[in-house]
Write a structure and sequence with these properties.
Elements lengths: L1 H6 L11 H12 L7 H7 L1 E10 L16 H8 L3 E9 L4 E7 L7 E7 L7 H12 L9 H9 L2 H4 L7 H10 L1 H9 L6 E5 L13 H13 L14 E2 L5 E5 L4 E5 L5 E5 L2 E7 L13 H9 L7 H7 L6
Parallel strand pairs: 1-4, 5-10
Antiparallel strand pairs: 1-5, 2-3, 3-4, 6-7, 7-10, 8-9
Helix pairs in contact: 8-9
Length: 319
């Protein structure tokens, strides 16, 4: 994902999942795109952000305690020149905290990093299961540069932490926190979701000029080929308090993981989010004629994240 962005940041071909390609193909079957080619649609959409999950205390800069795990934050800052945003988001009910990294160039994706505090649940059985799951990496899955190489290729089977977690233990964790259950299935190095920046989209079929238009045009299109988060509660669209950040997401695809004794664990994988960032001030839009114009345009739009929006988006991995 990031290696390809480092080489050619403007192409959606970089992302690790093929699901959006399949989604666009399905849309093309139902909608008339005129002379527009699928490749043009893909290249017209860029990533707004990519998200990762982890356990609190698993990564400490310079700490070798859990060297079997890739410190995603540290690696992206050192190797791709990402930098701290200085913003912290707190999700009290879910026992989560999050921050995000600013990209080295405006059109590379932001990185949203969240962590769960297992000890805050004050549940000894829950803590013991997670500690056991984390210890499964010791001496078995490879470490250091080996896992870093796997990270760039997003090999989920190398990241899973459910090897020595029983079905009963996994279901206990899932009952307490879907976030933690997702981590056991996928591991902290696997991409939790990626978000498409619909305000950057130049494709006629997907182009929208406001979050309000996205809530109609894009939601309608995506709803034809994917289940949407919040659909059952009639709260698909999430809008920030300042109405400058609009977001909605699909529901994660279900998957079955197998632990070390052959038991099948029902979980889910990654999902897709759609984001629209309004201009900070009215009348700031510029005509997009080049990549430079697009970067300038991005700098005039709402940055960062919103607690209420993100809290709802987290629900995309509810099994």
């Amino acid at each position: 994902l990031f290696q390809r962005y480092r080489e050619q940041q403007q192409s959606l071909e970089s992302h690790a999942s093929t699901r959006i390609k399949d989604a666009l193909k399905e849309i093309q079957k139902e909608e008339e795109f005129g002379d527009e080619e699928e490749e043009d649609v893909l290249e017209a959409i860029l990533l707004d952000h990519v998200a990762f999950r982890t356990f609190k205390g698993l990564h400490h800069d310079g700490d070798e305690k859990h060297h079997q795990f890739v410190n995603v934050k540290q690696m992206l800052m050192e190797k791709l020149r990402y930098r701290e945003s200085g913003e912290t988001l707190v999700f009290t009910k879910k026992k989560l905290k999050a921050t995000w990294l600013k990209p080295p160039t405006p059109l590379m994706p932001r990185v949203f990093l969240s962590e769960i505090d297992i000890e805050a649940f004050e549940d000894e059985r829950m803590s013991a299961i997670v500690r056991k799951a984390i210890s499964s990496r010791e001496g078995g899955k490879g470490k250091g540069a080996v896992l870093e190489d796997d990270f760039w290729e997003q090999k989920r089977d190398r990241f899973s932490l459910c090897e020595n977690v029983s079905k009963d233990e996994y279901e206990y964790i899932a009952e307490k926190s879907e976030y933690a259950a997702w981590l056991l299935i996928n591991g902290p190095e696997f991409v939790n979701h990626f978000a498409l920046a619909m305000h950057r989209c130049r494709s006629e079929a997907f182009r929208v000029s406001s979050g309000e238009e996205m809530s109609r045009k894009i939601v309608e299109r995506i709803a034809k080929i994917a289940k949407l988060n919040g659909e059952e509660e009639n709260r698909v669209m999430n809008v920030s308090e300042d109405r400058k950040l609009w977001q909605f997401s699909t529901v994660s695809d279900e998957l079955i993981a197998v632990n070390g004794t052959g038991e099948k664990l029902k979980g889910c994988g990654a999902y897709i989010e759609f984001a629209y960032r309004e201009y900070i001030s009215t009348g700031e839009g510029i005509e997009i004629e080049s990549r430079k114009n697009l970067e300038e345009d991005e700098s005039k739009r709402r940055d960062g994240f919103e607690v209420a929006n993100a809290d709802a988006i987290f629900e995309s991995t509810k099994v």
